[in-house]
Amino acid sequence: MRRCLECGQLVSACSEAWYSESMKEFEVAEGTFPGPENLRRHIHRSRKILRKIAKVVNKKRDEIDLLDVGCSSGSFLVLARDLGFRVAGVEPASAPARRARERQLNVYQGFLEELFLGEESYDAVTLFEVVEHLKDPGRVLRECHRVLRPDGVVVIGTGNTDSWTVRYMGGRWEYFDINRHGGHVSFFNAESMRVLAERTGFTVAGLKTRSVRLYERDDCSVFRYRMAKICGEVLNGVGRLIKKGHDMLVFLRKADGGARQE
């Protein structure tokens, strides 16, 4: 890992070939669509985020144009559409993009910065589990700035390296393992997210974290894992308050004056 001395941003030193090979795992039709065991949790969290988006942009749901970047096969878009949002998606992998279209979703196949979507066309852009895959996240955030309307919002979901999980587990945290999580090369914390926002024409409108993990399931006995999970749940309450959870959700507001070109 390489670490920025200014903001603590971590960047993987993996080879280009390793990165490309790891990204092949996303070229499957169902993509990241949640299975039955995770569906209820996915629905609950997605609805909370969508309600927050409507509140932040201060519009009714049927007035909000939402673009989900890295939408995979469309799990978030389906929920947003069902709640009345006007939705579209962007997905680089061809197989999940086709499956999303089979669900009657408007999904562009390719990379956002290469699609040249209409300027100021959207009220909200979401990037869930996307920025950690980007070797140049600033380029994508500047394009988000361009396609957003004034006072539009970007919502980013990613890992938090300034978490108790990372402090305790270090390199054992599976999020850092490119073989288990294909393409993870950029790792953020609250300060590095603030710096990225500032350099791309945004201000941080909100930042929350959740979840504390002390062991991965395969790192210890079943008993120790269960005890550690209970401890993690106890710590999670405090971790939320002081932003020490490993799961980070960030709301960026489009700032006045345009995106800085750095």
Distinctive features:
37% helix, 262 residues, alpha/beta, globular, 7-stranded mixed beta sheet
Query: What's the main sheet like?
Result: 7 strands, mixed
User: Which geometry do the CA atoms define?
Assistant: globular
Give Rg in angstroms.
Answer: 18 Å
Separation of the first and last Cα atoms: 23 Å
Which class of secondary structure composition applies to the elements? alpha/beta
- Give the low-confidence spans: 258-262
Could you please say which CATH topology applies here? Rossmann fold
Strand share of the residues? 15-25%
Order of the strands making up the biggest sheet: 5-4-3-6-7-10-9
Helix and strand sequence: EEHHEHEHEHEHEHEHEHE
The helix content is: 25-40%
User: How many independent structural domains?
Assistant: 1
The averaged pLDDT comes out at 94
- Could you name the CATH class? Alpha Beta
What is the topological layout?
Blueprint: E1 2-3, E2 10-11, H1 16-22, H2 36-57, E3 65-69, H3 75-82, E4 86-91, H4 94-102, E5 107-109, H5 112-115, E6 122-128, H6 137-147, E7 148-159, H7 164-169, E8 186-187, H8 190-199, E9 202-210, H9 222-242, E10 247-254
